[in-house]
Amino acid sequence: MNGKGCRELMREVVDAGLCTYCGGCSGSCPYMTAYKGRIVFLDNCEVQDGQCYRYCPRTHTDLDSLSRMAFGEPYGMEELGTVSRVVMARSTDPHVMKMGSALDM
Hints:
Distance between the termini: 47 Å
Low-confidence stretches: none
CATH topology of the domain at 6-61: Alpha-Beta Plaits
Shape: extended
Radius of gyration: 19 Å
Number of helices: 4
Order of helices and strands: HEEHHH
Strand content: 5-15%
Number of strands: 2
Strand order of the largest sheet: 1-2
Helix content: 25-40%
Largest sheet: 2 strands, antiparallel
């Protein structure tokens, strides 16, 4: 995919001061964890195409590649993006409906 792993993540995001400590990287990687407000390595990682890099919201997202993987077509410029369908739902639970109408104030 992108050929980037934890070393690139540390250099491009953490060391650059872009990390928000959301846990996207450490939640999917057995080599990293959040500790006292920092991202730390638990072991030496040699993975060249790491999930930590892919799941980090502060790294570049290749929308064309993602769209091809999910929908089988290139990324388009539609207002909602590429979707398989759009649906609308409404609750029939009186309590949920009451709470929803309270938000309209």
